[in-house]
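User: Hello! I'm new to structural biology and keep hearing that structure can be predicted from sequence alone. Could you demonstrate with Ferredoxin--NADP reductase, chloroplastic? Please show me the input and the output so I can see what each looks like.

Assistant: Of course. The first part below is the input, the amino acid sequence of Ferredoxin--NADP reductase, chloroplastic. The second part is the output, the predicted structure written as tokens.
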Amino acid sequence: MAVTVPVGSDLSLRRSAVKAPNFNFWDKSWAPVFTLYLKANNSSLRSRHVVFMSVQQASVPKVNVSPLELEDAKEPPLNLHKPKEPYTATIVSVDRLVGPKAPGETCHIVIDHGGNVPYWEGQSYGVIPPGENPKKPGAPHNVRLYSIASTRYGDFFDGKTASLCVRRAVYYDPETGKEDPSKNGICSNFLCNSKPGDKIQITGPSGKIMLLPEDDPNATHIMIATGTGVAPFRGYLRRMFLESVPTYKFGGLAWLFLGVANTDSLLYDEEFSKYLNDYSDNFRYDRALSREQKNKNGGKMYVQDKIEEYSDEIFKLLDNGAHIYFCGLKGMMPGIQDTLKKVAEQRGESWEEKLSQLKKNKQWHVEVY
């Protein structure tokens, strides 16, 4: 059966109608992803009707994507637009991702690039905020890199948008405890303050380290993120579990570890929980909530504590060729490395030798900032 639903507003960002995903409209478990789809489209569609088809299938229905020509390239697109000649894209939507008790604000930002800045999962865009570089009068600001939080098809599944997951960087004076706007992050605040229709200068795409290896669709992928470092993993998981991509049928194991402060700080949690419910044989999801959970020693729970908790299993998976990814703040790595070294020693192994082998086998992927 078909259900016709009027949605959204028209910013003239689309030259052709956006294809609706083939969600089972009556399946309430699709609500989180469906809601995000509608919220994104609400900014770019008005006076149009989107048709949602209820599909009876033995497996969970996936979303049709286009254009499938995006699968044809043998190498990832790199630096199509450089800092001296950035691409002018358009903000489609800006949505707060976190709850009221989260420390700080994180936003999901959808950008319309019109299909002119294609990318692969795991790559980054550069953003040049408006204004003058205070250190170089007359020159634009330096480029800030952000991991892309969507697949190559974007949140509208039409290959014309990209999404960023951005935490607003604010500075509080240690003496007064008050916010000092003069020291706040220029680019993150520009992005989080943006409105639909605003223009944005982007460069890239860049990056090959975090590309999702697809030569073996049954491989194991262990993803470890802190905060907005979850961005590339959201792209991976949408490609694995949400989108119908004829050339990539994932049948392996994806295991996500996400470290944030508290429940209100969780990012894309409903999407990930949906995959966990629908693909329990292929997806695992472990949260480390530092302000709500305790580790085995009674201290705060961080991602490295979760890694230690499952260390035997993780090491066996790595021995069998699993890929492991780390994305987030640079400060996450020392604690994780120490934990892995300790576990390796307990197993009678040399962590330095093991790490060297993982890098040699291209199983080790790190992008921190």
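User: So the tokens describe the shape?

Assistant: Right, they're a compact way of writing down the 3D structure. Reading them back into a model, for example: Confidence is low (pLDDT under 50) at residues 1-32, 37-58.
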